[in-house]
Amino acid sequence: MSITETDAKALGKVGVLFGGRSAEREISLISGNGVLQALKSKGIDAHAFDPAERSLAELAAEDFDRVFIALHGRYGEDGTLQGALELLGIPYTGSGVMASSVGMDKVTTKIVWLAAGVPTPRYVTIAAGANVDTDAIVAELGLPLIVKPPLEGSTIGITKVLDAAGLQAAVDLARQYDKVVLVEQFIQGREFSVPVLGSGPTARALPIVEIVAPEGNYDYQNKYFTDDTKYHCPAPLDAATTAAIQAHVVNAYRALGCDGWSRIDVLLRASDNAPFLLEVNTSPGMTTHSLVPMAARAEGTSYEDLCVDILRSASLKAGQVKKG
């Protein structure tokens, strides 16, 4: 989709927010630089802004007409920045305060999804400072287990626990990132990710991406920095399974009140082809290895046009624009 000079001017002065203070800063820098160059290539008046290096007062002083959020993790994807932008009256890409904060917390996401009939792996939580009752957890969820910090992304702090003896060390690792620890039932099967664009009734799933990581280990290194992980898009699935997964994903997106764009990760259990939704990313990666651009390309949309489309969706969810 081409963009005219008039269209580019209508989008105004644009801030691309990336970097930030989260554990995912490194990836955000890559995402944000990609978005910035893409928007500039379309003639848009786009400028870099790193909230880790500049204050909210400086953000307000820049007088941006809208911003593209390319931050990942805490202080960018968790509702905190979204709340500040609402107060400043600056339209922004992606979900609002509530959906961002709920989506960032994998435990709260599960609670909402289960209430909406969205299939997700069974789980238990270990409260801050609580002892690990290994026998009770294994009896509830079986083995293997997945242990993760519920407020982190990019597979940071995650452990696959193969036996009961390894549970305590996995919890200790997760507690380096979060006080509460999430322990999930392990789903053996194929791994997928499904981007969603739009809002409410207009929300739609893009083509499904299948992820085939070395030895099934889609960790931080295999996710971003190697070419060993293989991706298939559209995923080689029959039409009925594709439609079922996409329907679950759109339902999950709407249940959380997501807006603009997101990406939802899914496992398809090998034993019966039952889908299980794992988590939502309300500010997905936009690197050369990222899945949203990959799915968009499968529909014939370039990286640059995808960035423009997402930017066009920037809005305020609670307030009114500061201009005037």
Automatic annotation (TrEMBL):
<feature type="domain" description="ATP-grasp">
    <location>
        <begin position="110"/>
        <end position="312"/>
    </location>
</feature>
<dbReference type="GO" id="GO:0046872">
    <property type="term" value="F:metal ion binding"/>
</dbReference>
<protein>
    <recommendedName>
        <fullName>D-alanine--D-alanine ligase</fullName>
        <ecNumber>6.3.2.4</ecNumber>
    </recommendedName>
</protein>
<keyword id="KW-0573">Peptidoglycan synthesis</keyword>
<feature type="active site">
    <location>
        <position position="24"/>
    </location>
</feature>
<dbReference type="InterPro" id="IPR016185">
    <property type="entry name" value="PreATP-grasp_dom_sf"/>
</dbReference>
<dbReference type="InterPro" id="IPR011095">
    <property type="entry name" value="Dala_Dala_lig_C"/>
</dbReference>
<feature type="binding site">
    <location>
        <position position="281"/>
    </location>
    <ligand>
        <name>Mg(2+) 2</name>
    </ligand>
</feature>
<dbReference type="GO" id="GO:0008360">
    <property type="term" value="P:regulation of cell shape"/>
</dbReference>
<dbReference type="Pfam" id="PF07478">
    <property type="entry name" value="Dala_Dala_lig_C"/>
</dbReference>
<keyword id="KW-0961">Cell wall biogenesis/degradation</keyword>
<keyword id="KW-0464">Manganese</keyword>
<dbReference type="GO" id="GO:0005829">
    <property type="term" value="C:cytosol"/>
</dbReference>
<feature type="active site">
    <location>
        <position position="290"/>
    </location>
</feature>
<dbReference type="GO" id="GO:0005524">
    <property type="term" value="F:ATP binding"/>
</dbReference>
<dbReference type="Pfam" id="PF01820">
    <property type="entry name" value="Dala_Dala_lig_N"/>
</dbReference>
<keyword id="KW-0963">Cytoplasm</keyword>
<dbReference type="GO" id="GO:0009252">
    <property type="term" value="P:peptidoglycan biosynthetic process"/>
</dbReference>
<keyword id="KW-0479">Metal-binding</keyword>
<keyword id="KW-0133">Cell shape</keyword>
<dbReference type="GO" id="GO:0008716">
    <property type="term" value="F:D-alanine-D-alanine ligase activity"/>
</dbReference>
<comment type="pathway">
    <text>Cell wall biogenesis; peptidoglycan biosynthesis.</text>
</comment>
<keyword id="KW-0547">Nucleotide-binding</keyword>
<keyword id="KW-0067">ATP-binding</keyword>
<feature type="binding site">
    <location>
        <position position="265"/>
    </location>
    <ligand>
        <name>Mg(2+) 1</name>
    </ligand>
</feature>
<keyword id="KW-0436">Ligase</keyword>
<comment type="similarity">
    <text>Belongs to the D-alanine--D-alanine ligase family.</text>
</comment>
<feature type="binding site">
    <location>
        <position position="279"/>
    </location>
    <ligand>
        <name>Mg(2+) 1</name>
    </ligand>
</feature>
<dbReference type="InterPro" id="IPR005905">
    <property type="entry name" value="D_ala_D_ala"/>
</dbReference>
<dbReference type="InterPro" id="IPR000291">
    <property type="entry name" value="D-Ala_lig_Van_CS"/>
</dbReference>
<dbReference type="InterPro" id="IPR011761">
    <property type="entry name" value="ATP-grasp"/>
</dbReference>
<comment type="function">
    <text>Cell wall formation.</text>
</comment>
<feature type="active site">
    <location>
        <position position="154"/>
    </location>
</feature>
<feature type="binding site">
    <location>
        <position position="279"/>
    </location>
    <ligand>
        <name>Mg(2+) 2</name>
    </ligand>
</feature>
<keyword id="KW-0460">Magnesium</keyword>
<dbReference type="InterPro" id="IPR013815">
    <property type="entry name" value="ATP_grasp_subdomain_1"/>
</dbReference>
<dbReference type="InterPro" id="IPR011127">
    <property type="entry name" value="Dala_Dala_lig_N"/>
</dbReference>
<dbReference type="GO" id="GO:0071555">
    <property type="term" value="P:cell wall organization"/>
</dbReference>
